[in-house]
Design brief:
Blueprint lengths: L1 H21 L3 H15 L4 H29 L5 H22 L4 H20 L13 H18 L4 H10 L4 H26 L10 E2 L2 E2 H21 L5 H23 L1
Antiparallel strand pairs: 1-2
Helix pairs in contact: 1-2, 1-9, 2-3, 3-5, 3-8, 3-9, 4-6, 4-8, 5-10, 7-8
């Protein structure tokens, strides 16, 4: 148990920093790390992916709060965008969490692996959408928010790897897109965490300390470490060479996804 606690603290340090620095990455690191932790403490395989996703989303509530504050202080959050996209985000994420309750661990793992490879490829090749349009009206924002929320609920992320490219394609400056993405991640995390609590509420044989599909001991350990590191990462985003760091993160994603694929096969 001590090994698992230390692992959660280490994961929190890395995930919090990445979330603040890149606006993406927290959940993409937390989910595979939690799979290892759950294997360590003997969680049955059929529940591991659901618990990892639900717990990851719950941690982002706290990581996102720290990151948003730091980005807001630097004037890098478009609150008008956050207000417009949030209704669709909340609805899409909650519905996605309910659907995830009926998807087997095997297929949730497949979705995560494919998503991780896609994000890693985008980062390595520096594929960026051309900023050839403006942000859509309220209806369009909610449709986009619903899609982002749905996909985020299936992989346990705050949506940054989806919302940052979307905003960048709509002529939002990259640093502002990253800061706004951190704020958008909070309604995703809240709706997702609540959704996974509900979808896992009556599931039998969950490990002690679980609230639905949210494992509270891991949540506490990761949050204790990630909360302060998210502030550090957000501050560093305005000083460090983010493009180079994204390529390093992409390489890490490929390694994690490949390890998960190997285990799956």
């Amino acid at each position: 148990m001590l090994e698992a606690t230390l692992a959660c603290l280490a994961v929190g340090l890395v995930a919090g920093f990445l979330a603040g620095l890149l606006g993406v990455g927290g959940g993409l690191v937390i989910v595979p790390a939690l799979l290892w932790v759950f294997h360590l403490i003997g969680v049955i395989p059929e529940q591991q992916q659901h618990l990892a996703i639900g717990t990851s989303l719950a941690t982002i509530i706290f990581t996102g709060a720290a990151s948003v504050r730091a980005h807001h202080q630097k004037g890098a959050v478009r609150w008008d965008v956050v207000r417009q996209i949030t209704p669709g985000i909340v609805l899409g994420t909650f519905i996605g969490a309910q659907i995830a309750g009926f998807i087997s661990t095997f297929y949730l793992l497949c979705i995560f692996i494919v998503f991780a490879y896609v994000v890693a490829t985008q980062m390595l090749l520096d594929l960026k959408p051309k900023p050839t349009r403006q942000l859509p009206a309220a209806l369009g924002m909610n449709v986009v928010g619903g899609i982002i929320g749905l996909l985020s609920s299936w992989v346990g992320i705050g949506g940054g790897s989806l919302s940052v490219p979307f905003m960048s394609s709509c002529n939002v400056p990259v640093k502002t897109a990253i800061g706004t993405s951190s704020a958008v991640g909070i309604p995703i995390a809240i709706a997702g965490a609540v959704g996974f609590v509900v979808s896992g509420w009556s599931v039998p044989a969950l490990p002690q300390g679980s609230l639905g599909y949210v494992y509270l001991p891991a949540l506490l350990g990761i949050v204790l470490a990630s909360f302060p590191m998210a502030k550090v990462g957000a501050a560093a985003a305005h000083r460090l060479p983010v493009p180079a760091l994204k390529k390093c993160f992409a390489a890490l994603l490929i390694i994690l996804a490949s390890k998960m694929l190997w285990s799956l096969l």
